[in-house]
Amino acid sequence: MCLSQKAQKGEYKKSNDWFSSLQYLHCNINDLTISDSFLDPGSEFGGLNDSAINALGWESDRPSNFAIQGNSKHITKSLGWFTDVPISMKDKDNKTVIITGNFARIDNGEPEPMLFLGMSNIRKIQGILDPNKNQFRMKLHGKSYIIPTFSKAPEVSEPEQQVSSMHSDEDLKKNMTHLKSDL
């Protein structure tokens, strides 16, 4: 395996570890359901992608001039800032819980709306992720809530199989015959 393949494999494992560590939850902003909502304790800020902002018909509260590097290798420019965004979710007893937070607007190129809660959002509600129990515990206005979460399995592409042109099936059979006769 060449060095670049090892590096790619290491980068894939790092990205795969990050992806498999995410806990997803069902969230709404106004009447927009965002099925790709997730908790990202490795990112300082929360974010909304362009698809979500466009679906809501919003304009940025404030301009921003910084880049965001999340837990993946991608760096994206913040396109704006939204403050006091109300996010609703259901707890384990099916009660609606509404939190507010600040979110950076990002363009991740995804066609579906996406929302992620970063550490600033998680700390604000004293959140604790428990992936073993598929739940997110939080405190809001002195009350504790348990929000169900779920994981998504990483998509694994089939590795390309390279067939050496040096060895045909007949050559391999001959080599096996020679190995057996040597024993």
The level-1 CATH class = Mainly Beta
Cα end-to-end separation: 31 Å
Oligomeric description of these chains: single chain
Give the biggest beta sheet. Answer: 6 strands, mixed
Specify the CATH homologous superfamily.
Answer: Acid Proteases
InterPro entries: Peptidase_aspartic_dom_sf
Biased composition (Basic and acidic residues): 167-183
Region (Disordered): 153-183
Per-chain topology:
Elements: H1 3-21, E1 23-29, E2 32-39, E3 46-49, H2 50-56, E4 67-69, E5 75-77, E6 80-90, E7 96-106, E8 114-117, H3 119-124, E9 128-130, E10 135-140, E11 143-148, H4 169-182
Parallel strand pairs: 2-8, 3-7
Antiparallel strand pairs: 1-2, 3-8, 4-5, 6-7, 9-10, 10-11
Written description of the protein model:
It is a single chain. The protein is α+β, with helices and mostly antiparallel strands and 183 residues long. The protein has one domain: Acid Proteases (Cathepsin D, subunit A, domain 1), CATH 2.40.70. It is built from four helices and eleven strands. It has helices spanning 3-21, 50-56, 119-124, 169-182, and strands spanning 23-29, 32-39, 46-49, 67-69, 75-77, 80-90, 96-106, 114-117, 128-130, 135-140, 143-148. A six-stranded mixed β-sheet has the order 1-2-8-3-7-6. It has a three-stranded antiparallel β-sheet with strand order 9-10-11, with no helix packed on it. Strands 4-5 form a two-stranded antiparallel sheet. The protein is globular, with a radius of gyration of 23 Å. Residues 1-9, 11-15 and 160-167 have low confidence and may be disordered.
